[in-house]
Amino acid sequence: MSENNALQQETEQQHLKRQPCEVWTRVMGYHRPVESFNTGKKAEHAARCFFREPGAATGRDA
């Protein structure tokens, strides 16, 4: 049981050391923090999906 408590305390200490990460994205040629987006733009950003484009010379994923 003491090992579990030690692990829990270590995890809590790691969470205390963390700080928020500021996410930026490119919009209309400018880089802007996502936090500054209005409600609609935040929803659009959350709905984006990422894709992999095949490499030109090899035909493999880039």
Structure description:
Strands 1-2 form a two-stranded antiparallel ribbon. A hairpin with a 2-residue loop joins β1 and β2. By secondary structure, it is an alpha+beta fold. The chain has a domain at 22-52. It has helices at 2-17, 39-47, and strands at 24-27, 30-33.
Keywords, separated by commas or semicolons:
2 strands; 40% helix; flat; two-stranded antiparallel sheet; 62 residues; alpha+beta
What spatial order of strands do you see in the largest sheet?
1-2
- State which percent range the strand residues make up: 5-15%
Q: Tell me the radius of gyration.
A: 20 Å
| Main sheet characteristics | 2 strands, antiparallel
Extract low-pLDDT stretches. Answer: none
Order of helices and strands: HEEH
Shape label: flat
Give the fraction of residues assigned to helices.
40-55%
Structure classification:
alpha+beta
Chain-averaged pLDDT: 80
Number of helices: 2
Work out the number of β strands: 2
Distance between the termini: 48 Å
Topology diagram in text:
Blueprint: H1 2-17, E1 24-27, E2 30-33, H2 39-47
Antiparallel strand pairs: 1-2
